[in-house]
Every structure is written in structure tokens, then in C-alpha cells.
Amino acid sequence: DYKVTGVQTCALPISAESRARFHAGRLGLADTVRAALRGPVPEIPPRLRHIERWAVTGTGASEGVARGLVWLLRRHGSKDACFVPLSYFAGSAGAAWDGLVVVSQGLSPNARLALADRDRFDATVVITADPHHPCLARRSDAVVLAHPPADESSMLVRVRGPAAAMATAARFVEALLALDARPRSEEHTSELQSPCNLVCRL
Q1: Could you tell me the pTM of the whole model?
Q2: Numbers of helices and strands, H then E, in the chain
Q3: Rounded to whole angstroms, what are the CA distances from 149 to 9, 23, 40, 133, 165?
């Protein structure tokens, strides 16, 4: 009934309400992922087809999704993709990539640091559960891919959001492939046509 937080070990009691929200999220995980996979492939601008070098970033629970997306872009999209820590955007180095993907469930201040640097890139994609965040209103050129749930960003331990974000990342790669006329191997095609299995593997 305790959690460990911070650099030093600090035991804090978990409230009954937090415990109930965690269990409710765990029980709703499968439905949330299905919702993220349901419907058509997301529409993305044709200009993204020409982006060959992708920088992908995220922190906290979103870092795992970002790293998973790098793997998908390399394996299925034949793209030059690299995970970039958010600390990169605090510097002044020039961009070595053409496109930027920011994965952030609630668009944290760290994620907004990367978005503030979007002018270094030819294209920006945001994978988030908060598509109406005010910072995105000032970035109309960004491609925003929303995923459920919208009510989990305030939780310390996020259960459904990371899995739904990974499903959305898989759909993003599927959309990129739809823009690209290059033939793909049967293995790659069948794997992305079963994104639920792909999310489970990741």
C-alpha cells in the first residue's frame, strides 16, 4: 500500500481513491486499446511521405512508446529514426533530422520544450491524449494524433494511456506506409495489419 518516489526512497500511503482509479484503469485497458485501433487509418499530410529522418522523443511513460515507435519506423517504414532525449532540445545544436515526433500523454512542460523547437524540423507529429491543449493551438502546422483516455494524465501511474499511445503509433506507421508506394515484405504487411498483436509484442 505504499509507493516509492523521488531520488531518495520515500514511502507515501496510497489513498483508496487512487487505488480504485488504478484498478479501474487496469480493467479498462483492453477496451482502451481497442478504441485506439478502431476506425480508419489516421489521415496524415502527403508531405510526410518525403520525411526520411525522424527524431522521436518522450519522457516518463511516453519514453517507452517513443522508443517503440523508433523500432516501428525502422522495421516497417524503412526510415532513419532515432530516439532523442528531451534534454537535446535545451541545447542549440542544429537538427540532424527532417521530422519530429513528440509522444506525451498530457503534453508535459518537457514535451512542450521539444515543440517550441519545431522550427528545426520540416514536419512535426504529436501523439497525445490532450489534442486540445492550448500549446497546440499555436502550432497549426503540427499533425496531432489523439488517443484515449483523456482523464488519466493527472495520475502518477498511467495504465491505459501508454498502451493506447503505442497503438496510435502503430497506426501512424500504417498511415505512412499507405502514403508510400514502395512494396513491403509479406511479414511487415501482415504484422501491421494486426496492430493489436503488434502492441502486445512491444
Answers
A1: 0.76
A2: 8, 7
A3: 30, 15, 18, 14, 10
